[in-house]
């Protein structure tokens, strides 16, 4: 196993001792015996290690119960593509400087730092940040709900979209991968889960959560924790109470019925509102929504055929590759034949759509 993985036997022993990769069995001679599942876990551990993650972060990543093997592969692929793109951009910047110096041209300090600086990061982006960003019109509705709050806790903060820049923000994000994609200068971020927030009662003016509740192990417990640590709560979530909610969006109605199973255990909107004493208001999605959330491309169906667009949406990982491939294939056929346009002709004149996003305010 050590030879196959390209590591030392001592490394495998250490992983076993700290509980990172514990082989399922031992041979009669006392050797560690690795099952297929053990090998998958070892592969994930070594891949994250070679991407520069520390052992504690790696343990957090591979123990994430909401992420299966396919999700890990997509995550690793995104990280590797980002690293490749960063390396390619650095090579291009170095080549430009070599060419300039060969011609005797002056190279400014700004140009010298471009190879490592923020402009490079902005240019290449990442697997998630390529399509997930703040949509100004949705942000305006969220920030208006924050009112005059000065101290804000952003729970399940991800990469920092929708964090107001004019407030004192503290972020909470359990995923090391997401924390690693937060841009320089963003709010300080604490590694913690919504269900167990490491803050005293009423520590913040308001606690906010944007498109994250469906990822929590216990949404109601997380919402109550937000209510405990803040005087007010603002949450962007999804409504499954409305009769026929599965048919609101053509993608789930005609191509991805498995979406209903993804939210089968999700609390009702009424239940979430009752848990924190909140009222709800609709959040319309503009046709040219800048944030690549699942419903964002309701008037731009071709986007769902793009792999990099789907990779930034957790729904596709949850439904599995078979359902994803079938949905993409069927949608592609309907777009080429004109069936999609005929079936959804009423959307062409709409500027916004109510597809179930709701803002809870308590």
From TrEMBL:
Matching Pfam families: MerR_1, Methyltransf_11
Coiled coil: none
Keyword annotations of the record: DNA-binding
Keyword Glycosyltransferase tagged: no
Example GO molecular function: DNA-binding transcription factor activity
InterPro entries in the record: DNA-bd_dom_put_sf (IPR009061), MerR-type_HTH_dom (IPR000551), MerR_fam (IPR047057), Methyltransf_11 (IPR013216), SAM-dependent_MTases_sf (IPR029063)
Chain ranges of the HTH merR-type domain: 1-64
PROSITE patterns, alphabetized: HTH_MERR_2
CDD domains named in the record: HTH_TipAL-Mta
PANTHER family the UniProt entry points to: HTH MERR-TYPE DOMAIN-CONTAINING PROTEIN (PTHR30204:SF93), REDOX-CYCLING DRUG-SENSING TRANSCRIPTIONAL ACTIVATOR SOXR (PTHR30204)
Annotated protein name in UniProt: DNA-binding transcriptional MerR regulator
Organism: Streptomyces griseomycini
């Amino acid at each position: 196993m050590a030879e196959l993985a390209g590591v030392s036997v001592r490394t495998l022993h250490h992983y076993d001792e700290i509980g990172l990769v514990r082989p399922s069995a031992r041979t009669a001679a006392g050797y560690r015996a690795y099952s297929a599942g053990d090998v998958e876990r070892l592969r994930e551990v070594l891949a994250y290690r070679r991407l520069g993650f520390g052992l504690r972060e790696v343990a957090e990543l591979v123990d994430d119960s909401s992420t299966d093997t396919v999700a890990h592969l997509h995550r690793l692929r995104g990280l590797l593509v980002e690293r490749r793109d960063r390396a390619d951009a650095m090579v291009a910047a170095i080549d430009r400087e070599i060419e300039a110096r060969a011609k005797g041209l002056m190279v400014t300090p700004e140009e010298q730092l471009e190879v490592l600086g923020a402009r490079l990061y902005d240019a290449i982006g990442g697997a998630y940040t390529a399509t997930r960003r703040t949509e100004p019109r949705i942000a305006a509705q969220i920030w208006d709900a924050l009112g005059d709050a000065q101290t804000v806790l952003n729970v399940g903060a991800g990469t920092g979209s929708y964090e107001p820049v004019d407030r004192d923000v503290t972020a909470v994000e359990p995923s090391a991968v997401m924390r690693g994609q937060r841009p320089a200068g963003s709010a300080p971020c604490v590694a913690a889960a919504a269900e167990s927030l490491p803050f005293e009662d009423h520590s913040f003016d308001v606690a906010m959560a944007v498109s994250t509740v469906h990822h929590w192990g216990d949404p109601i417990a997380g919402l109550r924790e937000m209510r405990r640590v803040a005087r007010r709560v603002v949450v962007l979530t999804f409504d499954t109470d409305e009769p026929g909610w599965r048919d609101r969006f053509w993608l789930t109605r005609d191509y991805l019925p498995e979406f209903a199973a993804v939210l089968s255990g999700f609390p009702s909107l009424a239940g979430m509102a009752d848990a924190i004493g909140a009222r709800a208001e609709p959040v319309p999605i503009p046709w040219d929504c800048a944030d690549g959330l699942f419903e964002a491309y309701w008037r731009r169906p071709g986007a769902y055929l793009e792999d990099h667009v789907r990779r930034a949406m957790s729904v596709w990982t949850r439904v599995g590759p078979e359902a994803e491939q079938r949905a993409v294939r069927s949608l592609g056929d309907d777009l080429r034949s004109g069936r999609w346009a005929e079936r959804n002709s009423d959307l062409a004149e709409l500027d916004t759509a109510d597809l179930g996003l709701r803002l809870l305010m308590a």
